[in-house]
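## Example pair
The file below holds two records. Each record gives the amino-acid sequence first, followed by its structure token line.
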Amino acid sequence: MIVMLHSPVTAEQLAALPPEFRALLQAVIDHYEKRIAELEQKVVNLESRVRKSPRNSSLPPSTEHPHAKPIPPREKSGKKRGGQPGHSKQERSLIPTGQCQAVVSVKPGACRRCGVGLVGDDPEPLRHQVWEIPEIQPIVTEYRRHRLPCACCGITTCAELPSGVPLSQAGPRLVAFVALLMGCFKQSKRRVALLLEQVLNQPCSPGWVVKLQDQATAALTPVYEQLAAQLPKEPVLGIDESPTKEGPSKSWLWTFVAKTFTVFTVRTTRAATVLHERLTETFGGVINCDRAKMYWNIGRPQWCWAHLKRDFQALIDHTDHQVKRLGHDLMRPTKELFRHWSRCRDGTLTRRQFTRLMKPIRKTIDSLLLRGVFSGNRKLKGMCKPLHSHRDRLWTFLDVHGVEPTNNASERALRPAVIWRKLSFGTQSAKGSRFVETILTIVETCHRQSRNSFEFLTAAMNAHFEGTTTPSLLTGA
């Protein structure tokens, strides 16, 4: 709150001065009082920015240093770190002896007491198994294409490669492995080339990795486009976006989370045109999203309550006591909302009971938002007015079954992509962006469907080289 300082010159002192000097002094006082008010407002704005954290704003958790995070209010148990007495033991089970590549019998040569030689076999010897990685050598197949002359006309004809043999020097499993290293394990092209050379004994260069990346994009594009075409037909979608880079240009990595699959899209804009491109004019479902303007006219929005909770915490952390009080009043029913939703989600509360318990909470929050609109406080009015005007977007999850009150699903899907962005600093071209959105889509969708992503990538590469139909990730397809 800005505190206006009183002028050090009283009205009586001003009246005693000559008129021309009085006017000049009054102008100087007015000028510096205005300047002080502007600077005080800047201080207030800067202090509010300093107080922002992932708990009271939309800042991602990765922006906060781990040591800066508050210690959870939990009493120490007094126990030592690590496994406690009586906990279930975690150990690797022995595999059947027949599955071992080698069995070595180790027998004692002499008695450990008297030294007499020992003979015979132990019917139940102690079994100890050691796992090891074999030395990896690539399998190289040479195809000799014979060019033979015709005895009739003399024209030579060269044999074609068998079906499924790639024109490049990389087989389907190698291309799939390279794509997985970059898209799932977040390795750079130089690191991928280094791993192939030093671990797989496969000669490789960063330039060749780029060529393999392009092959993977071409093979996986039909799968990607099939999933993207399904988005307008989905009843519920979680949508979120995060900034990235495409060459020198700022770009955005979008994620669209459906029930059984996820689609990523990299575009050089954050405008609603991306939503119209992906969802078309036919989409009429519900979207879980934050309160960004580009989502307002797409489908039926469900505004994220996790974002709202952080915004209410920002009110609590404000220096203005009126703002702080409304923040506390809004936070109490919000915590009740999450408690009831947690019970409804784990099955200890039926949907009908949940809806009944939410009625007074909804009424309370709507009235508190209306109080903020007519509070006369610019901070409260600016936040509460759009929330109250569009309050139906806060409660879509109560009216439509299958809709969650938060956008956590899309934020969880976006987290691995954000880690990739932090490690790679984005892409260098539109071609690189196409690979990123494609491989992230395939890997995340396989994860959600409990599929082996490497097996699927290999199958897709085989289909691409053989010219057959690419496998699908749509359930029921």
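Second record, same layout:
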Amino acid sequence: MSPHSGLLFHLGMLRFAGPDAVAFLQGQISNDARRLAAGRPLLAAYSTPQGRVLAILHLLPHSSGVIGILPRELLAPTLEQMRKYVLRAKVRIEDTGERFAVAGRHGAAAIEAAGLTVPDAAQGYVESAGVGIGRGGADARFWVIGEAALLAARGLAGNAPQAELVEHDWRLADIRAGRAQIYAATREMYVAQMLNLDLVDGISFNKGCFTGQEIIARTQHLGRIKRRMMRLMLRGASFEVGQALRLADGRSGRLTEVVRVDGGFEALAVLNVDAAAADGAAGGEAAGNVAVTDADILPLPYALTQPA
């Protein structure tokens, strides 16, 4: 059965507009914002000065300003936090509200059927007939942004009654791609490398200073990351984002993403790299974690390497 595609109501968008928008983002996010100026989409973390991730942003170089896609529940706190750093920069940061919508598409067929241009791997992002289309990674998924009515007219909005299925299938695809997400329940818990952002082109280590850069760079240069995000198959009554758990092999951690599938739940969790390592308290998982006796660690599409 093909994954469901359509509007992603659990996600919202911030727009960064003005002549200093890219320069402002360069000083705030973990990746090199100059790639946006070259017309490339970007994955990046936005962190506290202590290096703890506040949000993960999928940034698209839209003609009206850089569009940042993130969970709707984080729009207001992220907007409030970022505005503190605007100072004299000529940049406006705003919630796009209901005027703009974001859809997710698995594969290019529907985009092509709508008569729109599909960005290739070299382009990464294009705008066609008022619709912005960005590649969502290496797994042939696409972000589609634009006015909600326009997306509906082009047949890209999906069916409203299937909204929960659209969200489920998009989040499941993120899990299988090993793509981290931050929600309110996991905000400020992790340094970017714990979420594998260094392994999926989400961090630039030669771009210069940005908020949280000192801690993120120190974590990399220490040469060993004790906690990494892993993909799990869990069997049990119920699981939710933010839940602390301990596996039978001694690994402890916290769920960062989880969806129900046949036979249980597929999930991403930040866990000890070494089984039975005695560092569970480092991420706040030692107290109140749930023992999970029926779980498998599943492969990711990339290797959990340590810094060179």
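Notes on the second record: The first strand starts at residue 6 and ends at 7. The first helix runs from residue 21 to 26.
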